[in-house]
Amino acid sequence: MSAARFFVSGRVQGVFFRASTRAQAQQLGLRGLARNLADGRVEVVAVGDADSLDALERWLHEGSPRARVDRVLREEATGHAVGEGFSIA
After folding, report:
1. C-alpha R_g of the chain
2. Where do runs of H (alpha helix) occur along 12-49?
3. Active site positions, annotated
4. Distance (Å, rounded) from C-alpha 11 to C-alpha 24?
5. Distance spanning both ends of the chain, measured CA to CA
6. Helix (H, G, I), strand (E, B) or coil at 88
7. Helical packing angle, 17-27 and 50-60, nearest 10°
8. Which has the closest alpha carbon to 83: 37, 30, 36?
C-alpha cells in the first residue's frame, strides 16, 4: 500500500470536484478523503496501490467537467490516517 497527498489549484471548489474525485477514487479501489481548503485549493489524501494513485493523479489534472485545474502538487503521505472508503469534507 502506498499513500499520496495532492493539492489541486484552480476553479475546483463549487464545481462538484470533491464528489467527482470520490467517484474516481472508488472506481480505482482507493480509500481516503477530499476536502476544500480555505485558500481555494482541494486537498486529496489517497491510499492504495501505486498504479491506482498514479491514475488518480492523471485524473486530477482534468477534474470534474466544470472544474478548471491549474496545478496539481503531489507528495508522499505518511502518518495520514484514513478510514474505510473515500469521504469528502
Report:
1. 11
2. 17-27
3. 18, 36
4. 18
5. 23
6. strand
7. 150
8. 30
Q: Are 2 and 40 in contact (CB under 8 A)?
A: no
Nearest to 46 by CA among 62, 29, 59, 58: 29
3-state secondary structure of 21: helix
Largest CA distance in the chain: 32
Whether the CB-CB separation of 22 and 64 falls below 8 Å is answered with no
pLDDT tens-place values along the chain, 89 residues long: 899 999 999 999 999 999 999 999 999 999 999 999 999 999 999 999 999 999 999 999 999 999 999 999 999 987 666 677 888 88
Question: Measured at the alpha carbon of residue 79, what is the angle toward residues 81 and 71, in degrees to the nearest 5?
Answer: 90
In this structure, the number of other CB atoms found within 10 A of the CB of residue 86 comes to 25
Structure-block grid coordinates of residue 10: 484552480
For 71, the grid coordinates are 496545478
